């Protein structure tokens, strides 16, 4: 479906956090100060490390925001849908865009240059507060994602540690592989450079999933494949 | 399990459902590409010395008969 020229939904700004609580005349002023950008599929609204000169609200279409790691690998940070903001860093004093925004379908966006939004925020201080709130929300997302990644890393370390014990002292028994010497949670914590608490929590969760079985000083790997899937972060087959 | 391998040592590879994955790869390195092609992570896996081909096939949701046929063919 080809996009109409400037698909302007008059209610567009009502749904945008940064303009929340703005009176109708303020919204008109904000709209008047905006510029339109049409983005063809594959076109970039801005690139990582480019000067953050404008922020945008997507009117129609879909964008992906990606970052390139120092190793050259591209990772997707988030997808942007209609009524969502992107390039927020331009409102909050960031100098460069932290990622690249690319249209994944033909898209229309409403943009405000840094100068324009600065002037609007002088008149309507609510805009600055809203921007802070939005950035705060994204920071929280980022932090919980970081926590997930840390947890995953520790789980992988523990799984690797147990796999090493299996390679060293595993003995095939009915329904699994027994680690054939007395091994405590504390031993595993020391082997994997983590805490006793973390090992206990992780092993209990794995026991519930049937991956391992813990006895007193006795560890049996019930589902060796599942342990390797965790250790190696293998893709799961359905 | 060990008995099985001894028994078939001097025959054609004769890999069966109960053959141990680690042994199969050690004795018949020509089988490695079969695992790799099937996206099985057995080569280098610390669990391989403990698992049978039947278990490996089950873990990777792959057809045991087809796997055995390919592995035996690779040994010839």
Automatic annotation (TrEMBL), chain A:
Where the record annotates domain HTH crp-type, the positions are 152-225
* Residue ranges of domain Cyclic nucleotide-binding in the record: 18-105
- Which Pfam families does this chain map to? cNMP_binding, HTH_Crp_2
What is the name listed in the Swiss-Prot or TrEMBL entry for this protein? Answer: Transcriptional regulator, Crp/Fnr family
Q: Which UniProt keywords apply?
A: DNA-binding, Transcription, Transcription regulation
**Any one GO cellular component localisation term in the record:** cytosol
The record's InterPro entries line, in alphabetical order, gives:
cNMP-bd_dom (IPR000595), cNMP-bd_dom_sf (IPR018490), Env_Response_Regulators (IPR050397), HTH_CRP (IPR012318), RmlC-like_jellyroll (IPR014710), WH-like_DNA-bd_sf (IPR036388), WH_DNA-bd_sf (IPR036390)
Q: Which residues form a coiled coil?
A: none
GO terms for molecular function, please? DNA binding; DNA-binding transcription factor activity
PROSITE patterns cross-referenced by the UniProt entry: CNMP_BINDING_3, HTH_CRP_2
Q: What is the lineage of its organism?
A: Bacteria, Pseudomonadati, Pseudomonadota, Alphaproteobacteria, Hyphomicrobiales
Q: Which domain of life is it from?
A: Bacteria
Which residues, if any, are the signal sequence? none
CDD domains in the record: CAP_ED (cd00038), HTH_CRP (cd00092)
Automatic annotation (TrEMBL), chain B:
The protein's matches in InterPro entries, at most eight in alphabetical order, are given as:
CHP03980_redox-disulphide, DUF1858, ScdA-like_N_sf
Q: Which Gene3D superfamilies match?
A: SP0561-like
* Positions of the DUF1858 domain: 16-67
The name this protein goes by in its record: Conserved protein
Q: Which organism is it from?
A: Tepidicaulis marinus
